[in-house]
Design a protein that fits this description.
Length: about 110
């Protein structure tokens, strides 16, 4: 590609008149030269991470399944505890309401 750039540059320089079009062409040739030089100087992008097989083994899947199972059992116990707490709270409120009514009836 650089041979074509050099030939075009020589053709532009050989032009008799220095018009705006010729100046633009010269600028384009200089930019093309710089671009080819920068591409040649730029190192190839290399991957820094390891590309090993990323599939999970059977042991990892069993571990994940056990973790999900334990988490589900824990969530079930927490839900059960909240349900019991709600029931106890409702009973306490009803008992206190009845006590309040009994206290106010006696007045």
């Amino acid at each position: 590609m650089s041979d074509a750039v050099e030939k075009a540059e020589q053709a532009v320089r050989a032009a008799e008149t220095d018009t705006a079009a010729v100046q633009l062409a010269m600028a384009a040739m200089e930019l093309a030269k710089l671009a080819t030089q920068q591409q040649a100087q730029a190192p190839a992008a290399t991957c820094q991470h390891d590309h090993h097989n990323t599939r999970r083994s059977a042991g990892e899947w069993i571990g994940i399944a056990c973790a999900v199972c334990v988490g589900s059992v824990g969530l079930a116990f927490a839900s059960l505890a909240l349900a019991i707490l709600g029931g106890v709270g409702a009973i306490v409120v009803l008992v206190l309401r009845d006590m309040w009514r009994d206290m106010h009836k006696g007045r």
